[in-house]
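We treat protein structure as text, and this decision shapes the records that our systems exchange. The tokens are whole numbers drawn from a learned vocabulary of local backbone shapes. One such record is reproduced below, unchanged from the form in which we store it:
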Amino acid sequence: MPDSVDPTSATPEAAEPQPTPAPRSGRGRVRLRRSALMAIPACVAGGVLMAMTAQGVLGAQFAISGMAFTVTADHLHGDGFEQFGDMDNMIPNSPNQGNTGGQVLVAVSAIKQGWLTNLCQSVNLGGTNLKITAGDAGTPVTANGLTTDSDLLSGDASFKNIQIGGDASTFNEVPGVQGNQGVFGQQADTVDILNLRQDNYATTAAKFNLPHLRLSFSDTGC
């Protein structure tokens, strides 16, 4: 998917074709410009994921480290999108819990199938940054079954057939991913975000392809 493609008018070819949800009648296209959003309820979200073999949302056995990491991309396109609120947990007495009590409020974002151009991920290790880049040279990163747990996201976003304010337990855009009953959420047929930037605490993916992957230590993050 070239960088120059208009994200609101073209959908990249899927690496692994999956059934496309039927369009919802009477729902139009929504565009949000330069949105900077905190936690819940959020009106813009995207999924960028660095876990290679997990599936679905975080299970009870998944304890976050409590160290947030930054993700950026020039362009994210996703087919099948959901977002809703949740709480992530650290291990008991984690050295990173600070005054959080070991819990972090997050916006869970899920994408059935996604493409990312010029992906960068970095985490500050104290004095240096562990940095990962992929999806450059015209070959995007592709992923299936993406979820990301974020407390901050910014970018230029557009949605197709978006529904805002639904009960997250009823969502069906991403198979196997739903929120708790009574939780505010939103879902859409597609999402596009330009100049994506996220602060994440956890991510999972059923499958993740990272062309031109490069891992290094750097004085600067993404």
Observations:
- The longest strand covers residues 69-89.
- The mean pLDDT is 80.
